[in-house]
């Protein structure tokens, strides 16, 4: 009988071995013969990883004991990474005193899947400086760096990237992987036209790649096509997007997360013609992921909102309100998280049964008393007030909310109070009412807060605050603007807008601060070259319309006159038997029985007419009606005539 260990060694010496099942069988036989054979155990572990049997690999590590785990740190960390145990993998890598280059690559991959994109980007920046790696590693680093940069853009942290990382060079057009990842970065930044060009380039490069088989090309092309269909939809080219989407066979996509995205996008494109109940059922069956196959946070949030939208269309209001309220209450409150804020909007829509306008405001205002720190609910009410042309109550609600946050003592409350989104809403509402001083006060306070923080997410807010404060004539506002631009310049020496703002802030008060930055600005002579000052003077000064909201007009004599003139005059109504030129009956205003033409019908009526006058002789007189309406015959009894009887009174 042959020795299993010798058979395994002979098998491993064969350089052309590609059958990992055969290697696994030999390794199992060797381990069965000698459980202390470390080389056989290591070989079995690698064979299991090559066959993507990661759960079996973990069991093999546990059976082998601590000795193999200490020897195979890279293999164990990779197994933990592939089974979705990212925290354990990260802890294992950090416990290594001197991590190898392969471990650092894996550490970057673990950080990427754990959505710690800043850590991943830092590792990818350092790897090229640590020396040359294996063949093809430079291209892999470029691909992974572009993917990490795109994820940072999606998180809204693109300002943390270098200028070269945000605007890659033309060498990204040489391979379909780099072109695809560069396109994803453009999508995250909102540069959809450039993204469409890069995706088309990626498809062409993939189709013409001679190193890939037809099956491999198909597998690589499908994610590119899914992304391109999304970009075309965002560009408004729905016909092209729908045609491209129909050419995608979702079941053929190898990666489970990409299949979920493709299925969601296909349903979203045809949502107008689909049954919401059926669509909801299809999404539930197609979004089941396990292990390392999971969506990124922003992708999962979008899919969750889509499911809630379908439930609202199916009028499942109670279920949606209950589910969103539970998630909101379980989150840290208050929070400026966009995911939790969007749940507040959905919860309000469910509570109001999808109503809008004043009806919706009446329904959801009581909710704000129960959830006073729900930013999504607050912004929904503010938006409804603005849509109904009533910004006053909206600003009052926002001011009450901000004051409540100011009285809190925790630093998290202060970060939420000066969140760039809330500050922007406050500035917009102040601008609607023409309150320029309130705008500058709000921006000055926000600038003071974020200058003391190390977080770079508020850089756009600081830039806008500095520009607005520069417009003021107040010395305090100008000083605040100068401090704001100094902070921006300290973070980026290439920010010309910040340098110009710094110079403008201190030009008249502290020239020593300005002088070092003058060389970074374009000379005035160059900026004014080609401008004719005499022509400008002759053209005059253009006046800019103010954005102040018009005051309401008080009602008075002029207003009443204008209102009366706008009233619609009623059309004159004529009788059915009206004939033009015929004189109308002068007695038409009298009751029927009082007219001269009245004749009672029947015997009793004629008798009553004859006996209508009692007593003496009747004298006919003609009396004229007031207003010239004609003559009416009046019968008047003479005095002394008739046989009158006196009524007997009481004695």
From TrEMBL:
Q: Where in the cell is it found?
A: Cytoplasm; Endoplasmic reticulum
Residue ranges of the Signal recognition particle SRP72 subunit RNA-binding domain? 558-600
- Tell me the domain of life: Eukaryota
- The principal localisation class reads cytoplasm
Keywords in alphabetical order: Cytoplasm, Endoplasmic reticulum, Ribonucleoprotein, Signal recognition particle
Q: Where is this region: Disordered?
A: 551-651
| Record's compositionally biased regions (Basic and acidic residues) | 575-597
Q: Where is the composition biased (Basic residues)?
A: 598-607
What the protein does comes down to:
Component of the signal recognition particle (SRP) complex, a ribonucleoprotein complex that mediates the cotranslational targeting of secretory and membrane proteins to the endoplasmic reticulum (ER).
Q: Which family does it belong to?
A: Belongs to the SRP72 family.
Put simply, this protein is called Signal recognition particle subunit SRP72
